[in-house]
Amino acid sequence: MRKFLIKLNYFLIPVVLGWLLLEIFYRAVPNNYTEKNKHIRGSYNDCQTLILGNSHTFYGLNPDDFTAPAFNISNVSQTLFYDKLLFEKHVDSFAVLKNIIIPIEYSSLSHSDFHPELEWRKYFYEDQMDLDTQTISDFDVKKYSLALVPRFSLTIFSLREYLKSGTLVECSTKGWRRQNGVNELYNNPKMAKIIADKHEDGSVDFRKNVQRLKNIIAACNKRGITVVLVTMPVTSNYAANVNQQKLALITKECSQLAKIKNVYYLNLFQDSLFQDTDFYDTDHLNSGGAKKCSQLLDRFIKSINN
Question: Is the pTM of this model over 0.70?
Answer without folding.
Answer: yes
